[in-house]
Design brief:
single chain; mainly alpha; MetI-like fold; 11 helices; globular; MetI-like_sf
């Protein structure tokens, strides 16, 4: 419980620092506001203190729910794909040496540049969210999960092989349990990645959720709605990150693993 409280305290401190950086940014660049720039007080007023704050807050929350659903799809698709590919790469060095450079090459292509091709292939429904968001999640998670799988104790693998176990048995009994910290690290990194991927997919592909709100608010000069949407995405990302971090702490304590 002490580690959980320490983690939540550091996360709260990070949130305070974000608010401080927000204020300092607007002070350092006064030309941005007050027409374009919005302070935390302005966002709070738009969502909670204005005459139309109820309807405005409701619209933001409705779109946030869509974005969270899209981010969940992106997170699951990206993490599952990363885990499967990482397991294959770890068990087969020739496959990893052949396809890892290709994967890194594809990662270097900007997602925006691939959007027209992706939408032509899969359409503008949930599939485009799964593909575009999954791409954002997949590559950093792949590297971290591969590192965790490769750190499995060699002695345990030798014992499994000596008793007739194959590579899949060693993966299941040795590598995967040893990679649990890496899996949680990949999950924490993937949470904001999934939100970014979902927002980009909504902006360019589905025309729904907060990604669509950002797209429409910018040319319409609806800056209160724009900044409030950004705050909603940021706060949601921090809260989900906190949930993953708490679950990580509890699971690793239960497994007797020390967090690094």
């Amino acid at each position: 419980m002490t580690q959980v409280l320490r983690f939540l305290g550091s996360l709260l401190l990070s949130l305070v620092l974000i608010l401080g950086i927000w204020w300092l940014f607007l002070l350092a660049f006064p030309d941005i506001g007050p027409i374009i720039g919005r302070t935390p007080v302005d966002v709070f007023g738009y969502l909670f203190a204005g005459t139309d704050s109820g309807s405005q807050r409701g619209a933001i929350l409705d779109n946030l729910w869509i974005t969270l659903s899209d981010a969940g799809i992106a997170f699951l698709c990206g993490m599952i794909a990363a885990l499967l590919v990482a397991a294959i790469f770890v068990m087969s060095r020739p496959v990893a040496q052949t396809f890892m450079p290709i994967a890194m090459l594809l990662r270097s292509v900007p997602l925006v540049a691939m959007t027209p091709l992706i939408t032509i292939i899969v359409g503008r429904g949930p599939a485009v969210v799964a593909v575009m968001g999954g791409i954002v999640v997949f590559f950093p998670a792949l590297v971290m999960i591969m590192t965790g799988l490769n750190n499995a104790p060699r002695q345990i693998n030798d014992v499994i092989v000596a008793y007739g176990g194959d590579r899949w048995t060693a993966m299941r009994l040795s590598a995967l349990p040893s990679a649990v910290p890496a899996l949680f690290s990949a999950a924490k990194v993937s949470v904001p990645g999934a939100m970014i991927g979902a927002t980009v997919a909504e902006w360019l592909g589905t025309n729904s959720g907060l990604g669509s709100t950002l797209q429409q608010a910018l040319p319409a000069a609806a800056y209160d709605e724009l900044w409030s949407s950004v705050v909603a995405i940021t706060v949601a990302s921090i809260l989900i990150y906190a949930v993953v971090g708490v679950v990580e702490t509890l699971v690793l304590e239960r497994m007797g693993m020390t967090q690094t």
